[in-house]
Amino acid sequence: MKLWSVGIIGLAGLAAVVAGAYSSPEVLLAVAAVTAAGIGIGWPYFLGIPAKKTLAALIGLPGVGAAVAATYLPAPGFLDWTPSFIAVGVMAIFVMQLLRGTGQAQRLESTLGSCAGVLLSCLGAGWIADSRFNGVREMLLVAAISAAVALLAGLIRWPDRIVAPLGIISAGLAGPLAGLVFSDIAVLPAALAGVVVGAVLVSFRRLVILSGEGLTILAAVGMGLGPVSAVGSLAYFIDKLLIF
């Protein structure tokens, strides 16, 4: 698949998150669960590692569990169980690699890359926490718009030395603009959220470029949804630290 398809998948994931947040908690939970499953299925294909089906379950299921916990845990501990799900997923990855035995191909790459996939899968619970935080969704919308602008900038087929600053600056400007139009969030927190989100997404763009044009559909899905999931927890903690 073409590299721009990863950005399109990311934009679709962001749109689904915003739609779910403004629909109902159950819809947002379904979106988060599908996102975690998509990362679980696609991440091993992006890494090109063996035991893809087993790793898909070990990466995706902790993310689904973290999303369920974030939906039903009482305030303010929306993400209290998320570290536990990350730890269980990482331990399961190590146990699986031990069961594979010594001398297996790409064992180190599989272990480290799969642990990163578990982290990305579980961080998507932050979208749910941010939606429930104080009963308002302004920072969620600001983060989603900033992420969309960064993803759109990443679609430009220019060198990284141009696209990376462009994506970060554009997201940093989109955050305050979205805050002024759609909420009462101050300019500084909105700008900080935009810059952080933009920096995360342009760094993932570099990973996509290094992978080349040979991405499969499943690999594109995993790589497109991974950074979208990570942005959820970033938005929540920025909201909690700077807005509350």
From TrEMBL:
<feature type="transmembrane region" description="Helical">
    <location>
        <begin position="188"/>
        <end position="208"/>
    </location>
</feature>
<feature type="transmembrane region" description="Helical">
    <location>
        <begin position="111"/>
        <end position="129"/>
    </location>
</feature>
<keyword id="KW-0812">Transmembrane</keyword>
<feature type="transmembrane region" description="Helical">
    <location>
        <begin position="215"/>
        <end position="238"/>
    </location>
</feature>
<keyword id="KW-0472">Membrane</keyword>
<feature type="transmembrane region" description="Helical">
    <location>
        <begin position="162"/>
        <end position="182"/>
    </location>
</feature>
<feature type="transmembrane region" description="Helical">
    <location>
        <begin position="81"/>
        <end position="99"/>
    </location>
</feature>
<protein>
    <recommendedName>
        <fullName>Permease</fullName>
    </recommendedName>
</protein>
<keyword id="KW-1133">Transmembrane helix</keyword>
<feature type="transmembrane region" description="Helical">
    <location>
        <begin position="55"/>
        <end position="75"/>
    </location>
</feature>
<feature type="transmembrane region" description="Helical">
    <location>
        <begin position="135"/>
        <end position="155"/>
    </location>
</feature>
<feature type="transmembrane region" description="Helical">
    <location>
        <begin position="29"/>
        <end position="48"/>
    </location>
</feature>
